[in-house]
Fold this sequence. Notes:
The chain has 135 residues and is α+β, with helices and mostly antiparallel strands. It has 3 helices and 5 strands. Residues 7-128 form the SnoaL-like domain.
Amino acid sequence: MNPTEQVLAAARDLVQAFASNDTASYFAAFSEDATFVFHTCAQPLLSRAAYQALWQEWQADGFEVLACTSSNPVVSLQGELAIFIHDVATRLRLGHEEVASLERETIVFRQQPEQGRWLACHEHLSAMPEQLPPT
């Protein structure tokens, strides 16, 4: 498998773990020093542990992923880094309410030669332009 195919497979695995609420596999797809920027959060999350703590709070409030689909993938290899961009359609349960969203996401993967795989080291989730309020 060439590096682009490896990154696409790593991204597929990450999205599948998220979609199926496989918390352990989802967070295992990220390096410990991974950072996260979500348009739904007031502050960046500066570690995997910070995101996991927030995730646990969400779950305590009734958060559950019902479905997640990736489309329009693009991979840009940059040495030991790979930038993966895609559109992501998600259905969530937030308490007693179901919410659907269409967002654009960038995930930066870093090659882990000693482990023979790519791990996500940064994730940035943005609202799709058509969902943004008019300026």
